[in-house]
Amino acid sequence: MAPFSILTKSSTFIKTLNPNSFRTISTFKYLCQEPQIAEPLVPSSSPTPLPPNPSSGSPLYQQDNWRTANPKSNLGFLGHSLPALSTLQAPSAEIQAYSQTLDGTQLMNVFADLMTSQKWSDMIQLFEFWIMSLDSNGKPNKPDVNLYNHYLNANLMAKASPGELLDLVAKMEDYKVLPNTASFNIVLKAMYHAGEAKAADKLLQRMLQTGKESMPDEKSYELVTEMLFGVNQIDDAFKYIDMTLSSGNVVSMKVFNECVDRCLKLRRLDTLTSIIGRCKKMDQNKALCPKWHMCNNILDFALQEDNNKLAFYGLEFLARWIVHDEAARPPIYLSVDEGLIMSTLGTAGRTFDKTLIDAAWAILRKSLRGKRASAETYLGKISAYSSLGNLQRAFATLHEFESAYGGVSNTEVAENLFSPFTSLSPLVMACSKNGFETLDSVYFQLENLSHAEQPYKSVAALNCIILGCANIWDLDRAYQTFESISSSFGLTPDIHSYNALMCAFGKLKKTPEASKVFEHLTGLGVKPNATSYVMLVNAHLINRDTKAAVSVVDEMVNAGHIPSKQLLKDIRRRCVREFDNESDDQVEAFARKFGIRMGPESRQNMLFNLSYSSNYA
């Protein structure tokens, strides 16, 4: 018992020194330490089993074993296995521990959750810890290009600079991963936000030289083209648009609108025409259409340069907008300015483009929605078809014009609308272009139409033929056509018919006959117009009868008409050549009366005073 007494005394001694420093292990003062003989083991028929393997994922264990390849709670460290990062005091350590439990597929799933919550810094840390961890085989984790692109995108969203992203792309070689197009596009996005157009241009060139895996796509071209437009490197931007189309990629609407705007501002209409034409030939780009106001600008600029092809594209874009907005709910009714259509018809006539005429007229009818077009538009269409030599369509348009404006109550306005000397002059020139052959063809067609089931008879059309015969100095055809107005067509000649006949007589110096025609029409009660007096004055001037010409001008003034400046200059020129100073003074008096500035005729006098000789200097 001596050892037990020693232990008891030592324990009491320690307590007296510091009673709160130690606590007894047991509530009993004395522990029995004498050895006991063990009972012999009796084998049992059902021995107690061992606890389950920790790697089996048994619910007895609170967390999964580190060897578990696919834990059930692998929703990321946002799931039940780890608390949320916002509640952790040391998130890096927790992320590092969690990264060791994931393979590539599971990491992609975790990235999906993190991207949804926009936790870019967590994605970056998780990837960097994962790349330094070992997989289930004890080998370092190796990412694929898609996984690495998610890492690059997380850095982009975390406001990484383009230089930092380029360094990360360069590190892909350390993991034997080749960057693809998506990898470089992430870098291009960073350059786009930083405004580094020159660096983006060089990177795109590198992509073109690298190979198929990193060939630029439409997003690559779009980013670089927008940057180049932003720094006014227009030629380089157009070069990449051309490469986009050549490679069969889609041109974005933003780039297309910017291209249209820059081409119009720089007046590079041929370039714009080429780009639009190439887009229309591609299924993936033929639906591109600029904004409404830009379509009007395209048409306006094309008409200024008489670019018929670009004008047609502009009309096509406008037609798309009209159809698109009419199909909207509620519908929106867009209309094209009629002045633009008139200018388009003029361009079509000068460029001999029948397709442009038809397109312009279709757009106009769609815009008017049943209303009547203006007289000037009809005359523009007649002039365009006349320039093309399409007399059948020209006379058909004349028929529509007469149906729309034939019943105008204002006689003077109606006379000017259907005058072969002014408004219908292009049609007259087209009829007399090939001489009597064309004139006879038109006349016989009009004669056949007059006997059709729905007869068409037009004095204005026949007046064009009469004046056309006068232009080719064919008095007989002119007179026969004049007589056929009443005999064959059953119509009554109007003032333009008589004026055209007077013109035919006057050109052949048959002034008495022209005077008789003038007297005949006044005898019938037809009031002569200004053109009637002009034709009679011209007939007298051809015969060098200046006094008679001045007397006709006097009658013209008394009838309430004002002589034109050109008419007075023609009379004055003839007076100078005939040395008729008295008539010249009367012409000057007319000019002062009506405030017409005649101006000098020094250039004409130089030609008149030339001394022609067969001797050379």
UniProtKB/TrEMBL annotation:
UniProt key word Repeat = yes
Annotated region (Disordered) at 41-65
Question: Repeat among the record's keywords?
Answer: yes
Endpoints of the signal sequence: none
**Repeat PPR: residue ranges?**
180-214, 494-528, 529-563
Q: Which UniProt keywords apply?
A: Repeat
- Entries under InterPro entries matching the protein: At1g26460-like (IPR044605), PPR_rpt (IPR002885), TPR-like_helical_dom_sf (IPR011990), TPR_mt (IPR057027)
Q: Which domain of life is it from?
A: Eukaryota
Q: Which Gene3D superfamilies does the entry mention?
A: Tetratricopeptide repeat domain (1.25.40.10)
Q: Where is the Pentatricopeptide repeat-containing protein-mitochondrial domain?
A: 338-484
In Swiss-Prot or TrEMBL terms, this protein is called: Pentatricopeptide repeat-containing protein-mitochondrial domain-containing protein
Query: What is the phylogenetic placement of the source species in the record?
Result: Eukaryota, Viridiplantae, Streptophyta, Embryophyta, Tracheophyta
